[in-house]
């Protein structure tokens, strides 16, 4: 059996816990802060000061993991946790595998070439794997063992909150993604109306997040953005280049709406509508409300 350790700053680690269970050994979590973690065998909580960034405890996290019996270390694909994972890998002299899609008895299944193929790496030695965290595991929180730790000399001098609602698209069941087919920002209200009608979250392709800044970057789907796997993925005005497809190929049902009948997105879609989004989206919203 393979013993799994997880490093995190919050409870959104359901996918990692599932991966650990697939490996068959014990699961130990090292959490920076007071996150309430369920579904694991042991939790080590590193006490963190409010004005100290989680990354400053990277050395303490590495010490805690190195002191245990670990075969595989998992970290959610989030900025702070990637720093913690790097520190653990350096301490253990272990490789880091990113873009991990799945872990099982065969090894780590890693997305390669923009997500169009999976490479299986056998876990024959200690390794640090980075993958989507997923939702919080269900169940009662495990009583944590609190550990006081010395942080690196860093403090948070100021914070700037992003505008708009923060969402976790990796756990969304339904997503409507908007692309460059939207000519004006005001047209996004058509997509929002449809999303409200189907209880979906709004997302976007890269140009709408990094080009015209109509969306926050936490809503950008693609090879250098988020990878999602909802039950339903509606791509509106998205051509379907591989850079975007890599982020949504695991969707169970894909619906494409585009005015170009030759758009590559239709090859990835189970259902397609050729038409202008200004006409199709209002009709879709009314149909969903019926």
TrEMBL record:
FAD binds at residues 180, 205-206, 237-244, 258. Residues 3-166 form the Electron transfer flavoprotein alpha/beta-subunit N-terminal domain. One of its GO terms (molecular function) is electron transfer activity. Binds 1 FAD per dimer. Keywords: FAD, Flavoprotein, Transport. It comes from the Bacteria. Its cofactor is FAD. GO terms for biological process: fatty acid beta-oxidation using acyl-CoA dehydrogenase. Gene3D superfamilies: HUPs (3.40.50.620), TPP-binding domain (3.40.50.1220). The electron transfer flavoprotein serves as a specific electron acceptor for other dehydrogenases. It transfers the electrons to the main respiratory chain via ETF-ubiquinone oxidoreductase (ETF dehydrogenase). Belongs to the ETF alpha-subunit/FixB family. Heterodimer of an alpha and a beta subunit. This is Electron transfer flavoprotein, carnitine metabolism (FixB protein). The lineage of its organism: Bacteria, Bacillati, Actinomycetota, Actinomycetes, Propionibacteriales. The gene is fixB (ydiR).
